[in-house]
Amino acid sequence: MGEVDPDFIQPLEHQPKPGTLEAEGIPFIDLSPLNSKEPDASSALDHLVSEIGDACKTWGFFQVINHGVPSQVRQRIETASKEFFALPKEEKKKTSRDEANIFGYSDLEITKSVRDWKEIFDCTIENPTVIYASDEPDDKELRELTSQWPQSPPDLRQLQNSASFFLVEICQEYAAEMQKLTHKLLELIALSLGLEKDRFHGFFKEQTSFMRLNYYPSCPAPQLALWLGRHKDASAMTVLAQDDVGGLEVKRKTDGEWIFVKPIPDAYIVNVGDPIQVWSNDKYESVEHRVTVNSEKERFSVPFFLNPSHYVWVEPLHELVDEENPSKYKGYSWGKFYATRKLSNFKKLTSENIFQGLGEAYLNLISLCVFLIEEVVLCVESFRVILHIYACMLSKNLNICCTSSYQKMD
Ligand SMILES: O=C(O)CCC(=O)C(=O)O
Ligand SMILES: [Fe+2]
């Protein structure tokens, strides 16, 4: 595997095993009752709400069809994304994200201290998007950000109908559709938790949502690297368009097996993220997922991350907390978490991967030890404090970033 940069090599226990399970995939939900004028529409809607609730509880993931997003809008964003990533690297790098603007292009995404085999382009939804300027808890200074768009290179200017020439318009058109869809999905999720339909809307008035174009080039090391390492989404909800190549896997809650999410033309994959886990007081869970590579094909996907406003304090909703179900989480400031997460990208980029330069065997031994310690510590509830100190030590000394947004109650 001489050609693979060690930065991309997953720790042994997270390297994908051949033969992922495909059976019994994540639920498949038809949203057509939302638009139905039939007399029995209300019972179909009740059924839909219970399907959504079951999917959120059992999987944290589901796929939707008849969602109302025109297929041409999706085709346009897919074409524009392909054309953008086909631009010369120096053109893409003109929109590189940095500490001053966290939105734009990057080919240096890192998940849990290992590089992902991919390139991305992030753009804002609100213009401007308001975030905290720093991760310091008492620093209330705000920063207003807008997307960076590629300047069309001279030879592209002749192709006036090139999709990447219109990337800004196409992304805006797609984002508008995602806003409508996430609005409906939030209402269904609220109803499924026994809440008022509009219970979540107030959290997104000045949303910090963003959308991402993902380009995953084919990779010669399918046993060692991942297109995207295992993670849970920090967004409240993610809506994802994947192409027909596949690779997304979801960790099944019942047994921890990785389950392949079958690409379905024109369907969207929806998952609940950390804030919904906290708001629902653990009724729903933000579930781990990853993307395994393909050694022959490239892959494109477009996630829309629905994020709260910077000033939102995320804590279990009072309607879902009582004596029988005490609050399971300490609250957290969405905006401060987001600033920490986004700014840590740049701290990570300037530091070397802890595994860099080590021989593969040594690397595997270290990562296995870290994994075993982590498992043992996690099993013993009363060692929570030790885990915290351990995580802090690791993040400080070894540049591993703590990525969890929430903290459970003691
Ligand atoms: O590309 C995919 O299938 C998944 C993307 C994803 O999980 C993410 O960007 O958080
Ligand atoms: Fe994700």
Automatic annotation (TrEMBL):
One of its GO terms (biological process) is response to molecule of fungal origin. The keyword Iron applies. It comes from the Eukaryota. Residues 1-21 are annotated as: Disordered. PANTHER family: OXOGLUTARATE/IRON-DEPENDENT DIOXYGENASE. Transmembrane segments: none annotated. Keywords: Iron, Metal-binding, Oxidoreductase. Belongs to the iron/ascorbate-dependent oxidoreductase family. The lineage of its organism: Eukaryota, Viridiplantae, Streptophyta, Embryophyta, Tracheophyta. Residues 207-308 form the Fe2OG dioxygenase domain. This is Fe2OG dioxygenase domain-containing protein. GO terms for molecular function: 2-oxoglutarate-dependent dioxygenase activity; metal ion binding. It comes from Salvia splendens (Scarlet sage). InterPro entries: DIOX_N, IPNS-like_FE2OG_OXY, IPNS-like_sf, Oxoglu/Fe-dep_dioxygenase_dom, Plant_2OG-oxidoreductases.
